[in-house]
């Protein structure tokens, strides 16, 4: 009964942590619904396997670490995902691995899970280096001069190129493929209100009726 209670507490911790990671951090920022069930399924599956293997002894725990590495390799080779999604993927697996160890203290597991969530929340925050972008550009010209290439990229992207890597050059079709990291310009701020505008806003306004809608007159005895 003690083992069952400890396992239930770790399961609740794992489900809470992976739900916060998936529904409160990942999905509101990236909006990829197809990866939500993948993260949840991998986390719960790894939790179940590690919890079962931990009952065997030290060999089961070592086998759980090996299973963690095998699952990572299979998942990464089966689909092409973004680097941010790879970070969420590994965090999901680590949460399942930490919470699935029943011999690990609940307070230690909760602290490590909170640390992982805090790191992911800060590292993938939308305001962190928000102006730095990356894209792959196919140019309809081959630039041998780096200055000309930089000027062409800045004109097409509307930002300042920070670094780029030429991935492909085709002299027959006269094109080149460039992987660019660029910085967007600062957004224009709102124009400040003038003194007259602020005065007009604070001045009380008088509402006049339109001639098309005159004020109704009370009925007199002659009209009746």
TrEMBL record:
- What protein am I looking at? DUF4956 domain-containing protein
Region feature (Disordered): 189-224
Q: Where does the sequence pass through the membrane?
A: 6-28, 35-54, 88-121
Q: Which domain of life is it from?
A: Bacteria
Q: Which residues form a coiled coil?
A: none
Q: Organism, per UniProt? A: Streptomyces paromomycinus (Streptomyces rimosus subsp. paromomycinus)
An example Pfam family from this entry, by short name, is DUF4956
Q: Which UniProt keywords apply?
A: Membrane, Transmembrane, Transmembrane helix
Q: Does the keyword Membrane apply?
A: yes
List the InterPro entries hit by this protein, alphabetically.
Answer: DUF4956
């Amino acid at each position: 009964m003690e083992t069952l209670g400890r396992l239930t507490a770790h399961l609740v911790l794992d489900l809470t942590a992976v739900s916060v990671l998936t529904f409160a951090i990942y999905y509101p920022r990236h909006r990829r619904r197809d990866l939500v069930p993948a993260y949840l399924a991998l986390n719960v599956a790894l939790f179940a396997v590690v919890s079962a293997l931990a009952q065997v002894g030290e060999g089961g725990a070592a086998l759980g670490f090996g299973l963690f590495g095998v699952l990572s390799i299979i998942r990464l080779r089966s689909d092409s995902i973004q680097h941010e999604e790879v970070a969420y993927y590994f965090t999901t697996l680590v949460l399942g691995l930490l919470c699935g160890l029943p011999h690990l203290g609940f307070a230690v597991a909760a602290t490590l899970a909170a640390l992982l969530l805090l790191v992911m929340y800060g590292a993938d925050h939308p305001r962190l280096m928000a102006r730095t972008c990356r894209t792959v550009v196919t140019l309809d010209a081959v630039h041998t001069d780096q200055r000309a290439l930089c000027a062409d990229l800045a004109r097409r992207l509307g930002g300042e190129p920070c670094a780029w890597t030429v991935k492909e050059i085709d002299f027959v079709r006269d094109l080149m493929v460039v992987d660019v990291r660029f910085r967007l310009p600062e957004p224009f701020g709102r124009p400040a209100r003038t003194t007259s505008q602020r005065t007009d806003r604070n001045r009380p306004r008088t509402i006049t009726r339109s001639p098309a809608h005159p004020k109704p007159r009370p009925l007199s005895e002659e009209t009746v």
